[in-house]
Amino acid sequence: MSTEDLRFTKEHEWVRIEGAKAVFGLSDYAQRELGDITFIELPPIGKQVAHFEAYSTVESVKAANDVYAPLSGEVIAVNSVLENAPEKINQSPYDEGWICRIRVADPGETADLMDAAQYEEYTQGLKS
Amino acid sequence: MELIFERSRPGRPGAAVAHNDVQMDVEVDPRYLRSSDADLPCVSEPEVVRHFTNLSKRNFGVDSHFYPLGSCTMKYNPKFTERIASDEHFAAIHPLQPQLPKGPMLVQGCLEVIVNLQEALCEIAGMDAFTTHPMAGAHGELTGIMMIAAYHRHKDRPKKTVIIPDSGHGTNPATAAIAGYDVVTVPSDRDGCMDFEKFKAALSDETAAVMLTCPNTLGVFEPRIREIADLTHEAGGLMYYDGANLNAILGKARPGDLGFDVVHINLHKTFATPHGGGGPGAGPVGVRKHLEPFLPISRIRKRQDGTFALDYDQPLSIGYVSPFYGNFAVLLKAYAYIRLMGREGLTAVAENAVLNAAYLRARLREHYDEACASDTLHEFVLSASRQAGRRVHAIDIAKGLIDHGMHPPTVYFPLNVKEAMMIEPTETETRETLDAFAEAMIALAKLAEEDPETFHDLPRTTPVGRLDEVRAARQMDVCAPSL
Fold first, then answer.
1. CATH topology of B80-340 equal to that of B348-465?
2. pTM for this model (two decimals)
């Protein structure tokens, strides 16, 4: 799965813009750092999420972490497969492991996000 | 090992139940009656005793092994306190006894123990009053933050947020959220201290409280604590001290003098009462004068004639936080410990706890990466990052330690340190035990260099080997298949 069309946050979420909608997920770096994911709290449909604010929680064998929204908007769909198979995020973070789809409130917020190359560089910097 | 249900054979009773010779003419609503027999194991008494004795031999605890679990202060629990707590003059008192007419006169000794403990904790923490009702550290946190909320409501100050550093214990944000506040997380610097500029940016007139442990989770004493407290107070907020790490500063520094308004203390950490399964715990909460009216009821009042009375007439109190008067036996054990140690003894606790941790850190620093370069107090955090390069992770080192007959340190916490291993030896360990631990850790570091593959099926000396933690977390079904 190519990450070329994705945008990333410093908190390791990705977003794929699909016209007026957008899909959220966790990056490959995030799933590797978290280790085996055991639970993800799916947001309710209709929830308003805000740019860079926590909208969900992810638990792994190591820790529980907040998940931040790359963009503001309203949740219109969630990946309910993750309820029983949160390991999809480990196995396929950019495809089958997507978390939710939102209706984008302010497309201008994408300016605050990193593209794939910038994110790659950012995560390289974290390893040192 | 068989489950007790697997030892069960129908018709093999372990207890002689007396024949019921009481006339029952009470009508019981059929929906409260059983439709089938209770599913209890049928086992003889010796079978029961053997089963549980054998189970107990598989226990791992401070009475059997070294237990350097960071931030948990797994010090030895001296047995004389158990003897005192099981004295029938204390143990045989019914918790409702003080509620009888003139009942408090029947339990003056117990009330005096609680008052004396509260006074000792006030002296130790630099507070003006204590409640001994909360039954755990997290319960104390909730009690403390609820008092802070009540205080702000009483002052008619609309407050919305609680500031917590990202190295804080997980119970801190949970407590703030349950008390109705939004949590503002402040990143920590390389020493695990709050990033001061980011803290100032997060602070506002909506800040209800700042929750801190000091020393922090990396074992570092927050150097700007007075400034943090002063700024918080200027903004109309209060300072909350999480007492998890109090062992490090006993007799040396007092949270009240550092500027904290509310403190919870884990008696099962700092004051040597048993933890969890050996517990129960106790999380007394101390406050400065301005928060005293909000303490939970009942309070204990000392009358002019020297007797003690229970006082429920506290109009600003947040109310009841626990049934009766807290975990009395735990309070009693902690009080006995404090009296035995005395001021000099408790100061020596902090000194030796810090010395032991510093010694271990010095012995291990060349074999593992360190989380920070600063001086640390009663605990320190190592990182298995170097070993992780050879695919040996903190969890593998932890499992390897079990084969050396030692409990692992806290792993993967704090979250801001990769491959974290948080080590707190406590003051009750001998030089020989510390050396044995250091040698085990060094041996494991060498093994990670020479033969990293062996780690993946450790431990080998335990009744069960490496557990599938992922499956255990994903499929939370613990019923035996046969049941």
1. no
2. 0.87
